[in-house]
Amino acid sequence: MMKLAKLFKKSAASKWQPRIPEGERYYVIGDIHGRCDLLDALVEAIEEDDKASGPAESTVVFLGDLVDRGPESARVIDVARQWGKQRRVRYIAGNHEEMFLESFEDKEMLRHFLKHGGKETVLSYGIKKKRYTELTMKELQAELHELVPKKHRKFLEGMEDMVIAGDYVFVHAGINPKRPLDDQKQSDMRWIRERFLKHRDPFSHVVVHGHTIFEDIEHTPYRIGIDTGAFRTGNLTALVLEGTQRRLIHAREEDGTIAVEHADFPKGK
Known about the structure:
The protein is of the alpha/beta class and 269 residues long. The protein has helices at residues 2-15, 36-52, 73-84, 95-102, 107-123, 129-134, 137-147, 150-157, 186-191, 194-197, 230-233, and strands at 24-29, 57-62, 89-91, 163-165, 168-170, 206-209, 218-219, 223-225, 235-242, 245-254, 257-264.
């Protein structure tokens, strides 16, 4: 009986085709981590793709971790904010946005933030390296209030934790498999890893997430991980969803040159 149940579950999963609501198109962007050069190329590619793909109500979703590790976090925030003034864009908060915001008031969090890519974020706001190294933690925290525009903090504070579109749910890190979508903890949506990644049974929706780096996108019938490690690999990925169709747009840096690649979604596992 157990074998028959497993076969039925596998067969049902293979036949189910998750879909985006009719007339809508989504561009879901993985973790940027300060690589604004890649984001610039991806923004242009998405705009061109949207124009060429026919009429639809299109939405861009950032999956979080816009900041840290890469060299241009401040400019990433500027580009993301400005884009949202020109088209429909939704922004999901990652664990790095959470650390950044808490660093303004909590010195221990600031220390933790700096060790996990926050140093690059602080430097992206124009403070000189020499001055950065001379400041005490208390002085740096005070400087942070002066360096970071209030509009940037307000933008980060206004980010969402979850976006649902048809049979898909977009979050930064993942979801707690034991809780329904309407009962998820913010900490899980921003930080969860192994409990989510190792889960093999169906969720109520296909979960599209970042947070965990994969060499190429990671996908099962019930989740799609699109953090391709932009700051480390030079590959920033967008997942395009329309109806039951899925495809990919990559902005890749190689030998100092950035190229855009349109790719089919890989076949299911």
